[in-house]
Amino acid sequence: MKSATKKLSTEIAETLAGKIESIAAGSKKIKKSIEKAATKLAKKVAKFEKETIKAKAKAAKDAEKKAKGKGKKDEEKDKKKLKKEKLAALVASASSKPPVATPVKVNTGRVKSVADVSKAKTSDPNVAAATKDGAAE
Predict the structure, then answer these.
(1) How many distinct structural domains can be found in the chain?
(2) What is the pLDDT of residue 137?
(3) Does any domain span residue 50?
């Protein structure tokens, strides 16, 4: 039995040694594949970080441009708004004042104009005859 046991134990030892070698070889393969995956992952992470930094820089630059652009636009809008307010204030002040009375025409006693004479000719036949003869009133 000793020899049978010895033979069995050597078979078990050989089998175990083969299994251990295959596991070791498998673990080396697994280790290599894990390392490859890790390097790929590291590259992707690095690329993602670069893209994120670029995107943040671009967003900051765009925000700065918008801030500058808005500043100019806001100034222009403020100027237009100020002009409108001034105009509205002038209109309001002008409309709140009482209207100015038109000056009364003063008769200076001068001789009738040609237009007055022509009106008189058409309306009064006696005056029309007098003006034709050259007689003054």
Answers:
(1) 1
(2) 44
(3) yes
